[in-house]
Write a structure and sequence with these properties.
Blueprint lengths: L1 E4 L2 E4 L10 H5 L2 E9 L2 E2 L2 H14 L8 H15 L4 E8 L16 E8 L5 H6 L1 E7 L14 H12 L4 E5 L4 E5 L3 E5 L5 E3 L10 H9 L7 E3 L2 E2 H5 L3 E6 L3 E8 L2 E2 L7 H14 L1
Parallel strand pairs: 7-8, 7-15, 11-12
Antiparallel strand pairs: 1-2, 1-6, 3-4, 3-5, 5-6, 8-9, 9-13, 10-11, 10-14, 14-15, 15-16
Bound molecules: N-(5'-phosphopyridoxyl)-D-alanine (PDD).
The site of N-(5'-phosphopyridoxyl)-D-alanine has 15 residues, from helix 6 and strand 14.
């Protein structure tokens, strides 16, 4: 496997960054994950837009122009010879002696890797996965795709220990924000498709945005708003969305069956429509 590290393509075993990289010391950086599906990058531009947004919010200088970044991603795909994969790239504020203040003259550090994707199993797609709910203990800027992911890791680990695929995070007011690395959707008891509105409480998923676009002409009643754990437990359907899982049905929440305990019609249709659009 070949990685890209600050201007060079190197075998991943030899890829190294400085121990005083602020990403390493402070999680002072941002990242993106872009799916490569059958040789094509999915929604590359929106991912690059969000990368720019995250950098801007943290006042980290862009590592390179968009055109250069696109070339690096293509070259990484080419050198690794993959067609179904996930590209990961991150930018950190750079290398400087450890000090909380932003360093004055520093060059943004940038690394990118690619790896074969492990798409959800046929069983997960056909039977759905389970989620548990946990308190959302993250910060108030979840709209920034920061590499500071400890609360997300703790939640995913608890879900894994509980035999669940994902954790849905519940805010102090009882509403669900999103999953630890996925956006959360339900079809309510009265048949409305609902996902959290984009704001500082969630990462505005590129898959989420794509699904919303694909809803046009589907005749599905749709609302972007907060929904509670109770509403989710009473829902007919539930699913999650992300670059690695696309649209994945959820058939159990905290041990309770969602609807009839199998993936529902809205979820199935949206997964099909999403995959067809990605081809
Ligand atoms: N996770 N919410 C959070 C907290 C996420 O970390 C992610 C993505 C999403 C879904 O966003 P998108 O549709 O753009 O992938 C929602 C990536 C895949 C990750 O951390 O690996």
């Amino acid at each position: 496997r070949i990685a890209y590290v600050n201007g060079r393509y190197v075998p991943i075993a030899q890829a190294q960054v400085h121990i005083e990289d602020r990403g390493y010391q402070f999680a002072d950086g941002v990242y993106e994950v872009v799916p490569l599906y059958r040789g094509r990058l999915i929604d590359e531009e929106p991912h690059l837009d969000r990368f720019d947004y995250s950098l801007g919010e943290l006042e980290i200088a862009r590592p390179m122009s968009r055109a250069a970044l696109k070339l690096v991603l293509r070259e990484l795909v080419r050198r690794n010879g993959l067609s179904d994969a996930l590209l990961y790239f991150q930018a950190t504020r750079g290398v400087a002696p450890r000090d909380h203040k932003f360093p004055a003259r520093v060059k943004t550090a940038f690394v990118a890797t690619i790896r074969r994707s492990r798409p959800p199993s046929a069983a997960a797609i056909e039977q759905g996965v389970s989620v548990i709910t946990l308190p959302d203990i993250r910060w108030e800027r979840c709209d920034i795709k920061s590499i500071g992911l400890l609360p997300n890791l703790l939640a995913k680990q608890k879900a894994t220990m509980a035999g669940a695929f994902e954790a849905w995070l519940v805010e102090a007011d009882g509403t669900i924000s999103e999953g630890s690395s996925t956006n959360a959707w339900i079809v309510t008891a009265d048949g409305k498709l609902v996902t959290r509105d984009a704001g500082a409480a969630i990462l505005n998923g590129i898959t989420r945005q794509r699904v919303i676009k694909l809803l046009e002409n589907q005749g599905i009643a749709f609302e972007q708003r907060a929904f509670s754990r109770e509403e989710a437990l009473a829902a007919r359907e539930a699913f999650l969305s992300s670059s690695s899982s696309f649209v994945l049905p959820i058939t159990k929440i905290d041990g309770h069956a969602v609807g009839e305990g199998k993936p529902g019609p809205v979820t199935r249709r949206l997964r099909d429509v999403y995959v067809a659009a990605a081809l």
